[in-house]
Design a protein that fits this description.
The complex is a heterodimer of chains A (372) and B (467). Chain A is built from nine helices and 23 strands. With 372 residues, chain A is α/β, with parallel strands linked by helices. In chain A, strands 4, 5, 6, 7, 14, 15, 16, 17 and 20 form a nine-stranded mixed β-sheet that branches. Chain A is globular. Chain B has 467 residues and is α/β, with parallel strands linked by helices. Chain B has three domains: 10-124 and 268-339, 3-Layer(bba) Sandwich (FAD/NAD(P)-binding domain); 128-264, FAD/NAD(P)-binding domain, CATH 3.50.50; 372-439, Orthogonal Bundle (Arc Repressor Mutant, subunit A), CATH 1.10.10.1100. In chain B, a hairpin with a 4-residue loop joins strand 20 (378-380) and strand 21 (385-386). In chain B, helix 6 packs across helix 9 and helix 15 crosses helix 16. The chains are: A alpha/beta (372), B alpha/beta (467). Strand 20 of chain A pairs antiparallel with strand 22 (451-452) of chain B. The structure holds flavin-adenine dinucleotide.
């Protein structure tokens, strides 16, 4: 029997779930269709970085908005998301790198954003006592943080369920068709709604393509490695400037290291695979910046399937071709932090047709199809 | 660019992981068939678990360990006489889908690419979760035996707690060594003999095993050690260190004092490599474990990956060696080589060697206490997760071990779930009233064994075109 709703969301990641939650809070009836289980992919397995620091300028307003929701998220959800406020710091390994950060802070200030600040050498040592001697300073966003991704995404979905959202897990959307309303056909059922959100992560490009919208989503597998527990030496989430690194000591003492390098991702089989040779430089960078890491042992690794756009910023906004179709995908390995704010924004856009945010940088029609 | 010594190949026809009976036999046979073979094992020397340290036996140690142990020496000698490249102290810590093996040897990591991979990584002891099993001084019967084989050391005053042939064997070996266990607490539930009887006729075809087993048990019973039967409600007491073990046997509570408690609930296939490679597995209700799904010739669901020995399902040393040879022959055939021996004879020998198994499996299936531990019992030792916490995660909606892992970190510690995996899965299955196959198992992620970060920084990968 055909089921109907005001909005059908495709994808039970953090973007689909949070849009569903905020839409339901606005009074819409919502069905989320997820081919696996909620938080099975990027949204449940990411590194948990809640980072505004260093974002593409186009993302800064939305990321800032998301941060404000993050501060109250656990209260709003009535759940532990493992969220902690912590500094995010990009260390500068030479003066030239520090100059680049100074220029960025000026640009942000001109845009009216003041969350990123320059740390000089004593300040960077204050926040990172274990940092290597050659580090000359850094760029910091002191009230960023980190969270437990699986707890967060499933808590958003649980709250959405309480607000009336229906989650259909283990059901895959096969096709979409628009007559008066959208008809969404899955491998098990048929649904109808005036509005549809494509929040299908690494799989979203194929869905958009099936409706004639070109979105070159590349499936990538960011790689993370985890060490055995070390004595507490770092409270901040740390990145490097001139070479890829993301570095975080967890509350239990283990250190999670990632940054930039990619394994193999396969959207057909839902799998991702580690390629350790790619991580040689990452390992070396971690030891260079934190000499204490020379004695660390890797006990685990993981990766997940994530959707990346060629310009490393997502597709967010209405379809360029079809009424009642919206997109929110391709967060290019940094969409966890954006989850709450983008969901809230999309819910508003979907319900009212308008938003205070300028989404033009994220428009789906910014990519020219290969044959034109 | 790569700095491999000429001794170490970078590309082979067959990589065999594990130098126990299955691995040694597979390597020798594949090599006889004209294939280039590397045999990799993290141990110092040939032999795997059962034939550990087999090439360095002294008459005294041979005497303690017995005839079946000494049999491994012939296999080791044939390996030494073959063209197989044997790499001891070599840990395979990752295998990628293009058949590239990441190896750690003597503190540095390199790669080896293989056309075919034979997983001969044997068995691990089934976990025996019970109150107090994480205390210092608690070990496993298997670990006691490793100590005995590797360095001739016998733990004094040990109390053996559990069930299964290996526990009796080790007890007998300890007695022969002149250091008998302080007591044996047998947890095989009452009525098991009746359940095993239907298999006795078949088992009699393998009467050599039955005779050996019975004489072993007789030797232990005759040695004057206290033996408690059908023990239930077993728990280990102590603050940091184990001080005693308490249990009920024949309706009476007993407490035995010792700082050395060795647990055992039989052995199960070591799934780490086959799970890493995402081979299909199926629950075996008779052996109470997951086994990789194999065709008749040891081939898994993943191309080029084979399993031989206890990793395929528990069959013991002799079956392991027979399977090793069969798998090597299957690969030789696929590669168009002339076969150095006849398949049908090996198959017949394998069938007859396995005759005793259904009897043993019915007799020594794990007791309920260890399959469904009480709420407050710690199940994941690395992250200290209790059975009750796992049940709560299931109630919160976690449908399988991987979601429970995401909630609770169970299986995320240094052992990578090797110890707790089966128990976590059975607690989830029980709570959800789902089958073990529906419940599944942890996804295993590399490294299979911890490696230093500095070793990763100095990793020397092969520079070959990706397949
Ligand atoms: C290893 C790793 C580390 C990361 N670290 C960070 C970090 O520290 N900070 C940060 O901000 N971001 C990080 N990210 C990125 C972040 O996780 C993602 O950008 C974000 O989770 C994307 O959310 P999503 O909802 O768009 O996608 P997903 O979570 O992938 O959700 C999409 C869902 O759609 C479902 N789906 C697809 N097709 C269909 C269909 N046809 N029918 C039904 N359902 C379908 C999929 O099964 C999937 O569950 C990381 C990502 C990875 C992989």
């Amino acid at each position: 029997m055909t089921q109907t709703a005001d909005l059908i969301v495709i994808g039970g990641g953090i973007h689909g779930s949070s849009t569903a939650l905020f839409a339901a809070l606005r009074g819409m009836s919502v069905i989320v269709i997820e081919k696996d289980t909620v938080a099975r992919h990027a949204s449940g397995v990411n590194a948990g970085g809640v980072r505004r620091l260093g974002r593409h300028l186009a993302e800064v307003p939305l990321s800032q908005h998301s941060m404000e929701i993050w501060y109250g998220l656990q209260d709003m959800l009535g759940a532990d998301c493992g969220f902690q406020i912590a500094p995010q710091i990009k260390v500068a390994e030479n003066e030239e790198e520090l100059d680049r950060h100074r220029a960025r802070v000026q640009t942000l200030n001109r845009m009216g954003f003041y969350h990123e600040t320059i740390l000089d050498q004593p300040q960077v040592r204050h926040y990172l006592p274990a940092v290597a001697d050659h580090v000359v300073g850094g760029l910091a966003s002191l009230r960023d943080g980190f969270a437990q991704p699986f707890w967060t995404t499933t808590a958003i979905a649980r709250k959405a369920t309480q607000a009336g959202v229906v989650f259909k897990e283990g059901e895959r959307v096969l096709s979409l068709k628009r007559e008066t309303d959208w008809t969404v056909t899955t491998d098990q059922d048929i649904y109808q709604a005036p509005k549809v959100l494509n929040a299908a992560g690494a799989w979203a490009g194929a869905l958009a393509g099936s409706l004639g919208e070109y979105a070159p989503v590349e499936a990538i597998a960011p790689m993370m490695i985890v060490t055995a527990r070390l004595p507490k030496f770092c409270d901040a989430v740390v990145g490097a400037t001139g070479r890829p690194l993301s570095f975080k000591q967890m509350p239990n003492g283990t250190v999670v290291i990632g940054g930039g390098r990619r394994g193999r991702a396969d959207t057909a089989t839902n799998t991702s695979e580690m390629l350790f040779p790619e991580l040689r430089n990452t390992a070396a960078t971690a030891m260079d910046i934190f000499p204490i890491m020379r004695g660390a042992t890797i006990v685990r690794s993981w990766s997940g399937v994530e959707g990346r756009m060629p310009d490393d910023i997502p597709v967010i906004g209405p379809s360029a071709l079809h009424d009642g179709l919206y997109h929110s995908f391709g967060f290019s390995a940094h969409g966890f932090q954006m989850g709450p704010g983008t969901g809230e924004t999309m819910a508003g856009l979907i319900e009212t047709g308008a938003t205070q945010f300028d989404l033009s940088a994220f428009a789906i029609d910014r990519f020219a199809p290969p044959n034109t | 660019m790569t700095q491999h010594s000429p001794m170490e190949p970078t590309k082979v026809d067959v990589a065999v992981i594990g130098a126990g009976p299955a691995g040694m036999a597979a390597a020798v046979t594949a090599s006889k068939a004209g294939l280039s073979v590397a045999l990799l094992d993290e141990g110092q020397s040939l032999g795997g678990q059962i034939y550990r340290n087999i090439e360095n036996g002294t008459p005294f140690r041979d005497g303690i360990l017995g005839r079946d142990y000494v049999a491994g020496r012939t296999l080791a000698q044939s390996l030494r006489a073959s063209d197989v490249t044997y790499l001891p102290r070599t840990t395979v810590w990752n295998i990628s889908t293009d058949n590239m093996l990441d190896l750690s040897r003597d503190g540095s990591s390199s790669q080896l690419i293989a056309d075919k991979i034979i997983v001969a990584t044997g068995a691990v002891e089934r976990p025996s979760p019970m109150p107090g099993w994480t205390l210092a001084g608690v070990t496993t019967v298997g670990a006691l035996q490793i100590l005995l084989k590797a360095s001739g050391v016998v733990q004094e005053d040990a109390v053996l707690v559990g069930s299964g042939p290996l526990m009796w064997l080790v007890a007998a070996q300890m007695i022969s060594a002149g250091t008998p266990p302080k007591a044996i607490v047998e947890t095989t539930p009452k009525g098991r003999m009746a359940q095993a009887m239907p298999h006795i006729l078949q088992a009699l075809k393998g009467h050599r095993y039955l005779t050996k087993g019975l004489s072993m048990i007789r030797q232990v019973r005759g040695a004057g050690i206290p033996i408690y039967n059908a023990a239930t409600n077993v728990r280990i007491n102590g603050g940091e260190v184990a001080e005693s073990v308490t249990f009920i046997s024949k309706g009476k509570e007993h407490t035995i004092h010792s700082n050395h408690i060795a647990l055992h609930q039989g052995v199960v296939p070591n799934q780490q490599v086959t799970r890493l490679l995402r081979c299909d597995h199926k629950w075996d209700a008779s052996q109470h474990c997951f086994r990789p799904v194999l065709d008749g010739q040891g081939k898994t669901s993943v191309p080029d990956v084979y399993v031989a020995g206890d990793g395929a399902g528990i069959g013991g040393a002799k079956s392991a060696a027979l399977m090793g040879r069969l798998v090597a022959l299957a690969i030789a055939q696929e590669k168009g080589k002339a076969l150095p021996e006849r398949v049908d004879r090996l198959e017949a020998a394998l069938a007859s060697d396995g005759a005793v198994r259904p009897f043993l499996e019915a007799m020594y299936a794990p007791a309920p206490q260890f399959v469904k531990p009480a709420k407050e019992t710690i199940v994941c030792r690395c992250e200290e997760v209790t059975a009750g916490a796992i049940q709560e995660a299931v109630d919160l909606g976690a449908p399988g071990p991987n979601q429970v892992k995401s909630f609770l970190r169970s299986g995320m510690g240094p052992c990578q779930g090797r110890v707790c995996g089966l128990v976590v899965a059975s607690i989830i299955a029980e709570r959800r009233k789902a089958s073990m196959d529906e419940t599944g198992y942890y996804r295993i992620r590399p490294p299979l064994k911890p490696i230093p970060l500095s070793e990763l920084a100095n990793f020397q990968p092969l520079e070959v075109a990706q397949k």
